[in-house]
Specification:
alpha/beta; seven-stranded mixed β-sheet; about 20% strand; binds S-adenosylmethionine
Length: about 230
């Protein structure tokens, strides 16, 4: 409980100071975290798992409880304060300590991760709707690059968030949101195999599960056409 309050406080501070990359007021609730981690499953082979944007670690906790004995987990977190929290927890929380020799915390943006490992499961907490179209395109391409053949990619977005933002946004912002919508729609049409609506979260969220064909030229699937928007 104390850990959770400390996490909430840090998350709120980071939301205030680094809204653009933190993208949420609160860490994900347990149901959302469980849904995001649900593709970490027992397999015949050891699994390589990547979590992008773990923040204070609510989804990481769920992933750790599903980790097989030979699985490896990489946590890629941009924010230094969050990366420190994750590392502290690996050093001090008994449940995390038990797997610490198979978990790495990489404090870098996902765009800069070298694709020398292909992951079987990718879980992302990135607030894509806060980013420029160019960055979203780059990140989606990076997910494809880092994916092993038939890898799963799970990520969430808050219900109706683009629509709600578009209603009050100026023209340039509406164009940005429409561009992101178009890129994500293309990903869903091509690769989505399941989605879940988690109402018991603040705010409620959609979790998307995609199956990626590793080794694809990601550019082909993520090229952005000019979104057709009219109005002021
Ligand atoms: C909405 S929070 C999600 C945190 C956590 N997964 C959760 O569900 O509570 C987004 C997280 O993504 C991280 N982040 C944002 N941009 C990133 C990037 N380019 N590379 C890696 N992490 C990034 C932020 O620092 C933050 O921890």
């Amino acid at each position: 409980m104390r850990q959770r309050l400390t996490d909430y406080r840090l998350f709120w501070r980071e939301f205030r100071d680094t809204f653009h990359s933190t993208g949420a007021v609160l860490p994900s609730g347990r149901r959302l975290a469980r849904s995001l981690a649900s593709r970490v499953q027992a397999a015949d082979q050891p699994q390589k798992i990547l979590e992008v944007g773990p923040g204070t670690g609510p989804v990481t906790s769920q992933i750790i409880s599903r980790l097989g004995p030979d699985d490896h987990l990489d946590l890629v977190e941009l924010n230094e304060r969050f990366a420190d929290v994750l590392q502290d927890r690996l050093n001090s929380d008994p449940r995390w300590q038990a797997v610490a020799n198979r978990v790495r915390v990489l404090q870098i943006p996902i765009e800069e991760v070298e694709p020398d490992i292909r992951y079987d499961v990718i879980v992302s907490g990135l607030p894509l709707n806060n980013f420029s179209c160019e960055l979203v395109e780059q990140i989606l391409a990076q997910f494809h690059r880092l994916a092993a053949n038939q890898a799963s990619l799970s990520f969430f977005e808050y219900v109706a968030v683009r629509k709600a933002k578009s209603l009050v946004a100026k023209h340039a912002e509406r164009r940005r949101l429409a561009g992101i919508e178009q890129m994500l729609r293309r990903e869903f049409d091509s690769w989505e195999f399941d989605r879940q609506c988690v109402l018991a979260n603040v705010p409620p969220a959609w979790v998307h599960h995609l199956r990626l064909p590793g080794g694809m030229n990601p550019k082909q699937k993520t090229e952005v056409a000019e979104p057709a928007i009219t109005g002021p």
